[in-house]
TrEMBL record:
This is Uncharacterized protein. It comes from the Bacteria.
Length: 87
């Protein structure tokens, strides 16, 4: 297979398509997941945990607590909880 070098302009044009391709791929993955799970998915939407079905219907499962805003670049660590079985 021969490799062809792209010009800078051609590379920039191709890169401009990436967000649209990613969005389209995400929507397609969502549709495939609905089909694979028998038409039910659980996802978050506007602070709610929602069950969505392939037929377009949805049901609110519960209201979620507000998220915490963090600055870009902040590193978060998960602390180990003390074990109830500690000796």
């Amino acid at each position: 297979m021969t490799r062809r070098q792209l010009s800078e302009a051609a590379m920039r044009a191709a890169e401009r398509c990436i967000p649209e391709l990613a969005a389209r791929s995400g929507r397609e993955a969502y549709r495939q997941a609905l089909a694979a799970t028998g038409g039910v998915m659980v996802k978050t939407s506007r602070g709610l945990l929602v069950e969505r079905r392939a037929d377009g219907s949805s049901r609110v499962i519960k209201t979620l607590p507000p998220g915490k805003r963090v600055k870009i670049g902040t590193v978060l660590f998960k602390r180990a909880k003390p074990s109830d079985n500690a000796v």
